[in-house]
Amino acid sequence: MSAADVRRAFLEFFRARGHTVVPSSPLVPGNDPTLLFTNAGMVQFKDTFLGKERREYVRAASSQRCVRAGGKHNDLENVGYTARHHTFFEMLGNFSFGDYFKRDAIRFAWDFLTGTLQLDPARLWFTVYLDDDEAADIWLKEIGVPKQRFSRLGAESNFWAMGDTGPCGPCSEIFYDHGAQIAGGAPGSPDEQGDRYVEIWNLVFMQFERSADGKLTPLPKPSVDTGMTTTSISSGISCEPRPSSPARMT
Length: 250
Known about the structure:
With about 250 residues, the chain is of the alpha+beta class. The protein is built from five helices and nine strands; from the N terminus they run H-E-H-E-E-H-E-H-E-H-E-E-E-E. About 20% of the residues lie in helices and about 30% in strands.
């Protein structure tokens, strides 16, 4: 599969499930003075998550151009040292504005990866925020992933925010295992920065707004913000050639 194939499949998958496909917003945000560049697909929806803006749809999907070269999500210092960090990349995302929440977000991700892309479930690893029992139960009891490939991690790994202030919440990440021939450890291990286990999707459960003093205020409606990239399918299956990758995307 090419990156174009993955992009097309992703957008059509979510269009068929009631999501409005929205164009990529500009790299320089028009609605957020706290960001120099658009660093995630959810940036154009910030005011929608906060309840300040109403849209004619409650489900959206997009392929967003992003730059991470400074600020909270800065990949610049890691470019060239790992196979999965990039400054300019494309982020695929699906979003719910007070419509569905954790159960559907997790089910959509599982169905797309194992159904549409036909990835081997035995190569996938899953993480949730430390005390997110709801998301853990969905993965372990409803989807049926094995405990051996499941971890609970702290805020540094599994609590996402676009910046120091704004919408935020616990998240669940999905990793692809490239095999024992690639150096690196499982998520949460001392060797997690290696290239064996690579994050391919982040499911963010938007529940709070963080103010400048660090206070978390519940959002008007719990929502969903997800991010997957065709350059890592990074923040995943890599666009760079890998001997063990099931597909090369160029």
